[in-house]
């Protein structure tokens, strides 16, 4: 869980810090530093709002637990979080190239209008989105104990690393391109999303809500049990200890959704998820390449532009 918390917090906090950093840098560069206090006000309000959402989420989870329905809410959160994590990766891949220009364009409008309230609201919205996503993801990876997730070393480390990387980036000493950073973190986020999807399906099968054609495709408990409890059970049943510790199994289950004895549906869902993500990435990369090719194509004849239109022979 702590590794998951670290990766999620690292990604979310860095995105928020990146956006706030772009806003403040733009304001200072355009001699509008007087507005930075409103940016920090919006950021502070967003953090408080996110904490409020976390508290509300915990209250709702506790209420479901009192009604003995907590497990159903947890499954729903796992499955929805899997979708949101995947969407987050694709959104950042699509928008990180134009993020700076989009943010500065909006800020230019607010500065020109002298809208202090607009500045606060704009900053609040872009930061609170990251905060609410973090709360939702933590509810999924901690099984509903959001407070425990935020108190662990993973969340704290994620915040510290994210802020440090953002600091280096804006100081000009960051050597890793943003594109590379997001690719690396996206790969781990996708693995977490796949793991949540499979765990959700496994719980639905345990609740007999979803059936199974083949309840157990293989069993690797002898090699790598999912949990120390499974290792102890295997030792009692066979008199032989598993090859690897159950602690390793916990780590792999939390990070990659590892299962020692998955059902056919879990295996298909896990592999199918990566196939779908790969196909979507391939399609989006081709679309992006086509757009960039058109944008960078030189015009042969400047006179081809007439009344805002371009003749068919204008491009090479």
TrEMBL record:
GO terms for cellular component: high-affinity iron permease complex. Pfam families: FTR1. One of its GO terms (molecular function) is ferrous iron transmembrane transporter activity. Keywords: Membrane, Transmembrane, Transmembrane helix. It comes from the Bacteria. The chain crosses the membrane at residues 6-27, 39-65, 71-90, 110-128, 152-170, 182-204, 267-283. It is found in: Membrane. The keyword Manganese does not apply. It is a multi-pass membrane protein. Belongs to the oxidase-dependent Fe transporter (OFeT) (TC 9.A.10.1) family. This is FTR1 family protein.
